[in-house]
Design a protein that fits this description.
The complex is a heterodimer of chains A (115) and B (113).
Chain A lengths: L3 E3 L3 E4 L5 E7 L5 E8 L3 E8 L6 E2 L6 E7 L2 E6 L8 E8 L10 E2 L3 E5 L1
Parallel strand pairs in A: 2-11
Antiparallel strand pairs in A: 1-3, 3-8, 4-5, 4-9, 5-6, 7-8, 9-10, 9-11
Chain B lengths: L2 E3 L3 E5 L4 E8 L6 E6 L6 E6 L3 E5 L2 E6 L4 E6 L8 E11 L3 E6 L3 E6 L1
Parallel strand pairs in B: 2-11
Antiparallel strand pairs in B: 1-3, 3-8, 4-5, 4-9, 6-7, 7-8, 9-10, 9-11
The chains are: A mainly beta (115), B mainly beta (113).
Chain lengths: 115, 113
């Protein structure tokens, strides 16, 4: 069964910590994405990558960075965690180009709480 | 910029038909998609419309009118398990060469017996 795996389901971190969220996909997809989901706000795009070592800013990149050293792995980094980054973080992957129209595959999410 | 509007909540009873509307504004259009998300679960892909008209997949259908920047998801013969959030999404250019899905805020469907 093809899938997107996020390393942690729940995470609690302290304000100011550097936080790494890991995502791995086994579908050989070119595109990978990080979204955050908050009640009433839907899914908002943080960063995405369409190739190894490539990255593009989404709609809310401030306070985040990403790393894609291998095709199957896409990491989201919170440089200095703040309480307003408490959220559900969803990783997704897709084929490139028109292939993306056939759907994104999402991971189960990481619920991050910053205290 | 890009924006998508959909109702925040819809309620219905088992066996009924419900329609979830979505209007969008986007520069460049690559089609309208729909995703379903159960409480605590991951969003899952339901359908994609690139051209005008109705696409049917079992109990679910999706419609698109590009001239009206409008689409809807139609759920027939509702079942309790259809209680979930439904998101419409459009693919949009971001950055130099990439595209990404931009999602609406979601419609929570509650199905009662």
């Amino acid at each position: 069964d093809v899938k997107v795996t996020q390393s942690s389901r729940y995470l609690v971190k302290r304000t100011g910590e550097k936080v790494f969220l890991e995502c791995v996909q086994d579908m050989d997809h070119e595109n990978m994405f990080w979204y955050r989901q908050d009640p009433g706000l839907g899914l908002r795009l943080i960063y995405f990558s369409y190739d190894v070592k490539m990255k593009e800013k989404g709609d809310i990149p401030e306070g985040y960075s990403v790393s894609r050293e291998k095709k199957e792995r896409f990491s989201l980094i919170l440089e200095s965690a703040s309480t307003n980054q408490t959220s559900m973080y969803l990783c997704a992957s897709s084929l490139r180009g028109r292939g993306a129209n056939y759907g994104y595959t999402f991971g189960s999410g990481t619920r991050l709480t910053v205290v | 910029g890009q924006s998508l509007e959909q109702p925040s909540e819809v309620t219905a009873v088992e066996g009924a038909i419900v329609q979830i509307n979505c209007t969008y504004q986007t520069s460049g259009f690559y089609g309208l998609s729909w995703y379903q998300q159960h409480d605590g679960g991951a969003p899952t892909f339901l359908s994609y419309n690139a051209l005008d008209g109705l696409e049917e997949t079992g109990r679910f259908s999706s419609f698109l009118s590009r001239s009206d920047s409008y689409g809807y998801l139609l759920l027939q013969e509702l079942q309790m398990k259809d209680s979930a959030s439904y998101f419409c999404a459009v693919r949009s250019h971001r950055g130099e060469a990439g595209t990404a899905l931009i999602f609406g805020k979601g419609t929570t469907l509650s199905v009662s017996s």
